[in-house]
Amino acid sequence: MERKNFVYIVQCRDQSLYTGWTTDLEERLKTHNGENGGSAAKYTRGRRPVDLVYSEEFETKSEALKRECAIKRLTRKKKWDLINSKREQE
């Protein structure tokens, strides 16, 4: 079974944005919100709850990590442009 790779953006309670990578988006969100006892990212731990506002799926971990780095380099405005453009497509 091939693992899917996701890049995601969550919006924290303080309205900040956090970008990450995972192979299990649903479980990772639970972890960020402290629902499964896992280790949330240090950044989001004190900013719960978080809400998923964006995600992309990739075939390989390498592709996902490259995209994660690219998104992390974007300004907040550009991240919101990305989020909003995906919402318009749905």
Automatic annotation (TrEMBL):
InterPro entries: GIY-YIG_endonuc, GIY-YIG_endonuc_sf, UPF0213_domain
Gene3D superfamilies reported in the protein's UniProt record: GIY-YIG endonuclease
Segments forming domain GIY-YIG: 3-82
Family statement drawn from the similarity comment of this UniProt entry: Belongs to the UPF0213 family.
Record's protein name: GIY-YIG nuclease family protein
Source organism phylogeny: Bacteria, Bacillati, Bacillota, Clostridia, Eubacteriales
